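#help-structures
NK: newbie question, is this the right format to request a structure? protein is Glycosyl hydrolase
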Amino acid sequence: MTKEYQFPENFLWGGATAANQLEGGYLEGGRGLSIADVMPGGKIRGSFRNNPDFHFEMDTTKYVYPNHQAIDHYHRYKEDIALFAEMGFKTYRMSISWSRIFPNGDETEPNEEGLAFYDKVFDELNKYGIEPLVTLIHNEIPLHLVKEYGGWKNRELLTFFERYVKAVFNRYKDKVKYWLTFNEINSALRLPLYSLGFIPKNDEQKEQLVFQGLHHQLLASALAVKLGHEMIPGSQVGCMLLYAPIYPYNCHPENVLYAKEESRLFNYFCGDVHVFGEYPRFINRYFKEHNVKLDIQEGDLALLKEGKVDFISFSYYMSCTEKIIGDQKERVLGNMIGGFKNPFLKASEWGWEIDPHGLRISLNDLYDRYRLPLFIVENGLGANDTIEEDGTIQDDYRIDYLREHITAMAESIEDGVELMGYTSWGPIDIVSAGTGEMSKRYGFIYVDKNDDGSGTFNRMKKKSFDWYKNVIATNGREL
C-alpha cells in the first residue's frame, strides 16, 4: 500500500531560476554587463573560474557566451509564466539582475527601464496568483564593480548594495513579500568568483580575502533584512545556503571528526551568522590557524544582531563523503562540493551523487540547529533529454529523482520539521551556471536551444510537466 503524505495547506510549490541563466537581453533596456556575461560556455568555463590571470574580458572570436541570449525569457516571460501557472505554481523563485537596475553598480540613480521590466514580470505573476520569491544577488555582480573595485573584498560595495536594495524594496514593496539576500552565500568558500567577484592569486591569500569578502556580504545581508522589515511591513527576508550533509567515509574517529569540522565550516558558518547574529565560536580557532584577521569596524557586530533572518532557504543536490585517513583516490565532483565516491549511491550523468535520504538528514539537522522555518529553493536533476520520434520527452528519470526527494521532504515534515515550500531547479531548461551548457537540462519545460547557441527557442512540455502539475494539485498526496 502506497503511503499518502500530508503537506501543509499553505505549502509553497513552485520552481526556481536565476536572471543571468534565463533572461538574455543582456544589453537591452539599459542593462550593464555582469560577471556572468564574460564567462564563456562549455567545459572551458571551468578553466576560467580559478584563473587569477583572467581579466574579465570577452573574446567572441574564440568562445560562445550563452548567457547573452540565455533562453530569451526577457522577451518570452509571459509565455513562461503562463506555463508555470498551468503547472499550478504557488510561488516562483527568481532573481533580479543588479546590472539591470544599476548598470555599473555605482550610479546614484536606478535605471527606470530595468525597474519597469520587473514590474511587468511581477504583474504577470500576480495575474496568476503566483507569489514571487526574489533573490537579490544570484551570482550576478555588475562587471564594473568587479573590475574597478575588486568585488566584495572592497567594503565600498556595501554602499552600492544598500542603494540597490533600497531601490528595489521601494519599487516592489507592494508586489513582493518574500526575499532572499545572497544565493548560496557559503559557496564562496569553494568558488569565490561567482559570489564574491574575485579570484585569489594563491591559497595563502584566499583565506584572508574570502572571509573578508564574506564579512562584507554578511553585513550586506543583515542590512537587507533590516531594510526589508522597515520598508516592507509584513515581509519575510531569508538567507540562502548551499547545503550538503558531509558523511565520514568510515567510522575511523579521525574521519568522523574531519567530516564534522568540514560540515561546521561549510554548512553552518554563514548560517550561524545569519540566524544568531554573531560569529560562531568554532570559527575563532579556524581564523587563528589560517592567519585570518578580519577588519571589523564599529557598528558591524551590532548590525549582524539587528539583521537576523526570518527563515532559512537552501539548495540541496547531493551529499558529500569525506576522509582524511585512508586512500585519497576516487574523488568526485558536483556543485562545487566534491568529496569521495560513496559506494552506496548512484550518480547523474554529470557525476552528482543522488541521495534523497541526505535531504531528510539535511532538513532535520538544519531545523534542530536553528528552529526557523526552512525552504528548499533548489533541487533537481540535470540530464540529457531526448525528443522521441513522436515529439514527446519521456523524462521518467527526472520524475523518479523528484519523487524520491519530495518523499524525503514529507518524511521530514512528519519528523517535525517546519517546511515552507519547495521550488525545483529549474522548472524550464536554462543555461548551466557551472558549464554554460544547455544540454544539461533540469526543466519540466524543454527549450529548443543548443550548446552552440542555435535553436528555435520554442518551449515543449516534458512528461514531468504533467507529473509535477498533479503533485501540486494534490498537495503532494500523489507522487
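mod (FA): yep, format's fine, and the C-alpha cells are attached above. The longest helix spans residues 203-231.
NK: thank you!
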